[in-house]
Here is the input.
Amino acid sequence: MQLCWKRRQNNMTGFGLNGTLHEFSFSSFPNLAKIDLAMNSLSGNIPSQIANLSKLTYLDLSTNQFSGEIPQKFVSLQIFSKLVYLYLYNNSLSGSIPPELGNLNNLLELYIDTNTFTGPIPSTFGNLKKLTVLLAFHNNLSGQIPSEIGNLKSLDILSFSENNLSGSIPASLGGLRNLTLHLYQNQLSSPIPDELGNLISLTDLELSDNQLSGSVPTSLGNLVDLEFLYLQENKLSGSIPPEFGNLMKLTDLELDTNQFTGYLPQSICRGGSLQRSLVRARLDGNQLTGNLAEDFSGVFPNLEFIDLSYNKFHGEISSTWGRCPKLVDLRIAGNNISGRIPPRIGIGTQLQSLDLSSNNLVGEIPKELGKLTSIRKLLLGDNQLFGGIPPEFGALTNLEILNLSRNNLSESIPESLGNFMKLHYLNLSNNKFSQEIPAQLGIWISCPSWI
Here is the structure.
């Protein structure tokens, strides 16, 4: 490939370039300070000759098809001394990350994510004292996170997520006061260090999908600017710290698929400040207990999604869910909920999904559910509901999934269910319906028993 490169025209982002850089004469441009070749189709290895550009401060080779290892010579010559921005993300680079990258002591931003790098994270990264952004996610890195990363006092964003990292989270990270931290989808183990509670400017903490164990440190309640907290899919246990009620800016809380026990903190559920900010909450797949009607008696004005499924909640369903105006998805399956379905549940919301299955609900299905005209998914199966299917359900023309199986429903099946033109799953089995399937529904239903 030949590039005709004017001395002042060094930004060639998205020019449709292809081929390699093997024949390009970098030595002809000794004063070049910026190279931007992002978003092209360049391939082959990264030429080590780039290291001869002693005045280079900005290098962007991202979103191409470069492969092979980062050449050692590339990071061992004059380019230590000047380079400030290095972007190599979204390529097919492989091999280990050269420890010599730690010699680029003027580096402010390092993006090496979305490649296929293997091996450990070099401890020499701890020398990059000016670094503000370090992204190495979506690789195949292994080993432990070096404690030397805690030396990067200027670091604002750190992401080692989507790798194969193991061991513990270094306590030294607790000294990085302005950090956003993403470590999800690894194999990290041991408890969450108390020192993470020192990250008082943290807005986003994502530790999900690891093997973290032990209780959640109460020190996380110090993170008063936190907006996103993802701890799901670990082996965390114990109770949810009541100090979480201090997180008044929290909008997204995901603690599902752990081993949490005990009661939900009152500060989260009953009139606390967090209640007003919460947008999304996942607590499913734990062993949490408590009275659902008491624990969620308040109104969550910004709540859009909540999943409390597969815990040990008891009590009845509160009608206050119908006063959460932005609620789109409500899931309370697999608990010990009893009583009747409140007629006004979801009324006044934008509800699209309601899952109350596998509980101990009794009574008739409220005809008022026919007013949930935005609903797409309605799961009421495996309860003790009786009576008929309300004919008002015919108004639910956006319905895609309906499961009323394993109840004591009887009477006839309303022909108005034939209005469900978007329906692709319908399960009415294991009930006591008194007639054959209406012709309008025959194309959808295959039920093993109607008695």
